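Escalation from tier 1.

The customer reports that the assembly of two entities below gives different structure tokens on two consecutive runs. Tier 1 could not reproduce it. I'm attaching the input and our single run for tier 2 to review.
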Amino acid sequence: MSHTFAELVIGGILLAPFAAYLAMALAVIIVLRPLLHVLGFAKLFSHAPVAELSLYVSVLGLLMLLF
Amino acid sequence: MVATTAEQPFTVAKIPVSSWSFAIRVWLAIVLALFVSFWLQLEAPTTAALTVVVLAEPTRGQALDKAGFRLLATVVGVTASIAITGLFRQAGELILAAFAVWFGICIFAATALDGYRGYAAVLCGYTVGFIAIQQIDNPLHVFESAMARGAAIVVGILSIAAVNALVFAPDRQPQLVAQLAALHRRVREYAGVTLRGEPFNATTFLTLLREIIALRPEVTSVALESSSGSLRSAAARSAVVALIAELQAARTKRDAESETSAWAAKELLRRDDEVRQNLLALRSGRSPPRTWRAPLYRSYATSAESGVRAAAWFAIASAFFVSAGWPAASVSLSFVALFAALGTTTPNPRALTVLGLVGAPIAIVLTGMLEFIVLDGADAFPLLAIALAPFTIGATLLLTSRNLLWSSLGRIFLPYIMLILAPSNPQTYNPQAFLFTSLFIIVALALLLVAQTLIPPVSDEKRRMRLLAEARNELQRIRPNEEAAEEATFRDASRIERFLAAGGAKDNRALAEMLSCFDQSTTLRLCEAKLMQFAAGPLASLADEARAAIVTRDARSQRAVATRFRELAPQNDSIEADVAACLVLTSDIVDASNGDHSSRKAA
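Tier 1 run:
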């Protein structure tokens, strides 16, 4: 089964669906941040930035898989 | 800069390892940005590499912070480009005039802001130069050119963000904690010296003030670093504001006999405790006990004048290019916009132009070596990556140098190399294009230097006089409860910092008056804030009387009200006794300033 993507067109220019996913994943991470702080996410890992990057990639992958 | 650690860093070839890792990170991010741009077949891979170069900041938080502002400013700049081109596409000259006005507005905003916000305002200006002006002859391509630039900038930002996260770039937060703790210690030492009754050391005070204010734009960098970043950033900002308040409290004159002495010591301790709590909140990632804003002083008259002058520089350069009628002069004009804009974020815009003019030939020779001797027709990406290594790593190492000249040269070499090499897929290796780009840069800088000589930037003396006049005027217009006393004190301190940046340390007389205005306004505000506590109580009428005496600067009435407050005070550390001491201090300051005024008149 082939996956269909919603097209994002600005001013007659077709943007890659990937760009929209990137922005959506960023929005999700920004919304998740206060929750991550409450959960003590940064204290769970020795290198929190790598963990946050991995989380971003996971969210991006999930978005692409589900929507 | 503040030296915060005494231990010697580990070095390789006499260069600290942190500088090496920073340089290698920048190189890796450039290579990644170019690779992704080539792979996605973007139209402007050079912009992606340039974005990495612009975001080459030693810590992760700073790079992310600057990246956010770069993206935002690009969106604003692109919108302005489309609007300007849409409105004036029939006449090229009108586009140039409209751009000069827009440029002036952006420079006005840039000089009124600081740190990366100032950079963003500057970028809004020169983005129009790179999009609308370069496409002046075919306005229909403005939107496409804007999209290509936007895509390349996103790729550049993602590349440096990914490299910084994966290669363990240091965070800004631990450094900020160390810097603030060191400053706190030094402010305490300064307060200790004045507490012992030794004379004030103005140099120490001014150095501390400058170093604390310099941290203001950096506290926002912490916000993006981690999930607790926004709380830490708020704590750091509050700590910076509280430090200024403590530093000011340490200046209150004391003599053992005076009744205000005990009050001033108590006030200092209270400030010290505030700083300590804010630092604790910053370390532990909790929200600070009280969140302060850190308002920056803005001299709108000076900013407006800078904006008008920058617009005039651009107008002179465009008039020259239009009358010369050279082909592709628009590229050179966009470089004029770039350097004129970046210059206004430095204390001396002309110095940056001169530095750019000196650095350009060296960068051209280096890039020529890279393009025609090292690469010399190579078309494999790994070869490009390897050949770029010594040039980008070398320039970044220069950038980290403690010597201001070397570090400034490094700062301009990095973008120059990318701009002149203009990596593309496939690389053209066209000597003519190389020579043209080099020539455009040098002509643009020379022209800008001429324009800046004809219409010089706002002089230091004028800026100082304006700041002093504004400080005097503001002192007459202090109104209760406009904002928190601590925030107002911070704004006044940032005005002193601007005064010092304009060479104020040499102008002893104006500096003394500036500091006197600072002390007066702080004490007046503090007194007003204390009086507000009686607004609804039985002593409201007495508080109103005190407030009226403050507004009219009537020292005698202030002392009379202070005596009545003291009589009503149930004990020594009550609010009434506090207000009484504060009023006495205010009356002393009013008396001293009246003495100043009469002596100035006599002189």
